[in-house]
Amino acid sequence: MDKKFIEDLVAEVRDDYERRQAERRQFEAQWQLNANFVAGNQYCRVGVKGEVEDCEKDYYWQEREVYNHIATIYETRLAKLMRVRPKMSVLPASNDDGDVKTAKASGKILSAVCESLKMNELIGEATLWSELTGSAFYKISWDYKGGKEVGRDEKGKPVYEGDVRVDVCPPYEILPDSLAARGIEDCTSIIHAKVLTTDEVKRVWGKTVEPEETDVMSFSGISMLGGMGLTGAVGKIGRDKTRDRVTVIERYSRPTADKPHGELVIVAGKTLLYYGELPFINGADGKRELPFVRQNSINRAGCFYGTDMVERTIPIQRAYNAVKNRKHEFLNRIAVGVLAVEDGSVDVDNLETEGLSPGKILVYRQGSNPPRLMSPGSVPADFTVEEQRLLSEFVDVSGISEIMRSSSVPSSVTSGVAIQMLVEQDDTRISVTAENIRKAVKAAARQILRLYRSYATQPRLTRYVGDEGETELICWSKSDIGSDDIVFDTENEINSTTATRQSMMFDLLKAGLLYDENGKLSESTRYKILEAFGYGGWERSQNVRSLHVAKADKENEQIAATKPEVSEVDDHDLHVAEHIRCFLGREFGEAAKRKPELKQRMLEHIREHRAQAAAEKKIEGGENL
């Protein structure tokens, strides 16, 4: 590329980055303020320059303690949202047996790779950021150096099979082209900016860059707390300057008419690291899309970034701290007292230093009035009333009641129905955030499947653990992923907890809805019940129905090469049903056209099952006589 073109491109990308950063500065200041309030540094504000500033004491005796209710609200919401771990499956493209089997295989592959990618930990990390700042982002890419080593090239360097890589990006790193975009799909381009060391840039891109002065978020300094006779400090989260790193700017642009595969430009300092098309086929129908997924805590109308409960409760927290501190200042006046003395009657310096200690001999000027304590009165009841009102306002604004925050029921509530209604109200308030998490996970899973369908060319072995605890090794490649239409197998985990499912199970048992026509529990139903209570392993060996179905499916695959043998331990009714379902499917019909003897082989196998079943019934009938 021409040197002038490279210089102009680098300058244009850096100007674009600085413009977006300036437009977003108000959001960054709010995120920084949120982080400070959660950490306990609550005597700060966003100044007129758009930066977080400290609020200093007006008097040395002024109480400035922190009573951090925001942290408990934040941690309670996190604990509740950590239960959101949706289980997903893949819908088949049609009702054909081949599509159904491919969809089942895709679901198993998705479940296995999500476990290997540690998606639960990534969801937790993203939720931590979205609850603190309002938004978090997943970056889904293909790591050519990921996965297992499959060989070495002609230079002796290792060659890997490649694997999907999922990174959680805080909102500080993601800059859209417009703050009014409703989501990733509305953005023409997105910049991912991160601060790296020059050694890391050299390792990843193979180019040497000069370090520059960059801004990073860190615990820079302390903020003073405490009050009369007590001094404390808390860490302050703010911007800090580093001179040994460089900002790597990655600008991803959507496909256009001029650039049908999109564009990716990576710049570090004044160096161009990469210029070309979007590197990953991660969109629908083999197209290239922006490799990001957004997760909001609470959506903000007409804005790219979301909002959160920390931001909403900051004014209440400020008012609560003020009421508590003014109340304690009043108590200090009552406890220590305010001394009135005539001018020149006593040694004021001595009184200020030692105070009125017990047994103190107080010398005052002859003829003057002795010092006296002024009547402080009592603490006004308005302080207590305002304190209780603010505590109630925390609940109203955050949606975190006493039941969720302190695991205690209000003393005024004694009815079990009323308690259940309060719990459901708490779940309803947080269900919007839980649904945003589920949508983000679904979008990320769709991109993961698309990347495997594009780049998993070589067969690979993956361990899959089923619902009933069975372990299976799956050999698969990109041809086994036929669909990326993902659905959830579970309801919203916030509303459907383990306790509610167990209670519902008891109700169904009492109603008799789980019994068969003979009034008994089948073995499979009993296993499911025990599994719901966490004791599925006790009955795993007795759930033989699924084992018979799996054996019949394996026989359907073997029929193309040879006729399987019928065993006397087979459940013949199940086997016959599975074989007939396979026989009537489109995939078997097409195979039989290419190989006509398959039909006769399958029919003979079905006849053997039926003959064996008839013989066993005849023997059982003779024994009963």
Describe the fold and architecture.
The model has no long low-confidence stretch (mean pLDDT 85). The radius of gyration is 34 Å and the shape is flat. A hairpin with a 2-residue loop joins strand 10 and strand 11. The protein has helices at residues 3-23, 25-39, 69-81, 97-116, 119-133, 198-205, 309-336, 348-354, 381-398, 402-406, 416-455, 498-511, 523-532, 545-558, 572-583, 586-594, 597-624, and strands spanning 44-46, 52-54, 88-90, 135-143, 149-152, 158-160, 163-169, 174-176, 189-197, 212-227, 230-253, 263-268, 271-276, 292-296, 339-340, 372-373, 460-465, 471-476, 486-488. The strands form 7 sheets. Strands 8, 9, 10, 11, 12 and 13 form a 6-stranded antiparallel sheet that branches. It has a 3-stranded antiparallel sheet with strand order 7-4-14. Among the domains are: 3-64 and 117-309, no CATH class; 497-624, no CATH class. With 625 residues, it is α+β, with helices and mostly antiparallel strands.
- Strand percent estimate: 15-25%
Instruction: Characterize the overall form.
Output: flat
Largest sheet: 6 strands, antiparallel
Mean pLDDT: 85
Question: How many H/I helical runs?
Answer: 17
User: Uncertain segments of ≥5 residues (pLDDT<50)?
Assistant: none
- Rg is 34 Å
Helix content: 40-55%
Compute the separation of the termini in Å: 94 Å
**Helix/strand structural class:** alpha+beta
Number of beta-strand segments: 19
